[in-house]
Structure formats: structure tokens, C-alpha cells
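Recap from last week: sequence in, structure out.
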Amino acid sequence: MRALVAIVPVAAVVTATFGLFACSGTSPGNVFGATPVEAGPPSVNNGDAGNLFNGPEASTTTTQAECNPAAVSTFQPDWQAPEQWKQNVCTAAQISSFYDSCLTPPISEAACNSFVQQNANCAPCLQSQDTDATAAAVVWHEQMQYWTVNVAGCIARASGDATATGCGASYAAAISCRQSSCNACWVAQGQSATFQQFSDCETLAGSTTCQTYAEAVPTKCGNLDVPPTSVCMPNSGATAEEAFMLVAPLFCGQ
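Predicted C-alpha cells:
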């Protein structure tokens, strides 16, 4: 099975469990806040962060105490419905250029802003913030600190159910739970923790604190690797860029 994909720091992140996936992005207009030095797509597969295609297995990496998954008894999924599919506003060249200009490290604020300004009809479809009413192909989190590829939203559109009780929402909840369980580790980055430790924490959370949400996905969705949802699922081991280039055309392509 493919894995759940989830996060990408402004360095990029993607996740995998048995099919979770996500990457990073920015919102329309001036999409940059203060971005971490390590911004950019991950070079290796490591669970929810970096390349999120690795599943819930625990890492052997030693972690700080704040990077152990925390209890999620108060966690409540907050579903952000996806934008419409097939908006026909971006060419393949524009989609590729967006990734080069806005998501490829080292990220240049000037280059990304230039792309957004020159592609005003296309850019809003490609990126949004997690506080927006609907989610674009790429969603930025934590005030532009990391982005995720909107695999959950893609699944929702492919399955024909974009409601808070659908397959896409279940997939998103499994990812969000990991992020919540490892929030202390995220906050500690640059001080007593690294992004790799955050990624390892999310991976472990998938089989511990967030196991209930992870197990709910196949129950709700069945096999995501078959139509109609298979079009949204990056291959196991896919990079953040490959995940983006799979999902973005479905939302915005011509």
C-alpha cells in the first residue's frame, strides 16, 4: 500500500502511512512570511515530514523528550474542504514554474512574488493557507512555516465527497492528528529539536497516539490505490515535487 502523506517545512514535507500524503506551499499574493533556513523539499523519505511516504513504523533515531508523540485526547479534526477540481487556469508550464519559483529551496521571496504577480489567474489555485475557507493544491501552515500537498482534498474530489464525513476528511484527520501530537517538537525546532525529529515523531504517532485515526482511513476509504482515488496517490518513495506535479494539475490544469 502507499502511505499517508502529510507535512513539508518551508523546506517541503510529505507523509505516508498507508496512503497519507502532503507537501508545502504558500498563499496567493505575498505568500512568504519568515521561512526557516531548511526550507525546501526533503531529499529522503522520512514519514510525515520531509518525504511523508514512509508509513507509521517507528524510527530508530533518538529523540528529545518533547519529540515523543503526545496524547491527543483533546484533538478535534478540522476539515478544510478543497477547492474545485479541473479549474482550467494553469498550463503545465505554469505549474512546473510555480514549483521552481515558490517551493524549490533555497526559496526566493522575490522569485515567488514575481511568479504570483505574473500569473494572477493561476497562482490562487495552486496555493492557499490553512486559515482560508477552502484548500488549494498546496496548503501553507503555521504562518507559512511549512506546506503540504493537498492529497486529502484531491481524494475528496476524486471520491465525489468533499464533506467532513467523507474519505478525504478521514485522510486529513489522520495527518492532522500526527501534527497535533508532535506540536511540542515542532515548536522546539531550531532550539532543542530538529525537523528530522519532528518528522520521526509524526511517523511514530501514526502507529501510537494517532493509530485510531490512521486505522479509520482504510475503513472509510477502502483501497486508495484503485480508481477513483488512485489518481491522487503518489507512488511509494515519491518526492515532494512528484507529489505536487501529480496533484496540482488535477486542481488547476488545462
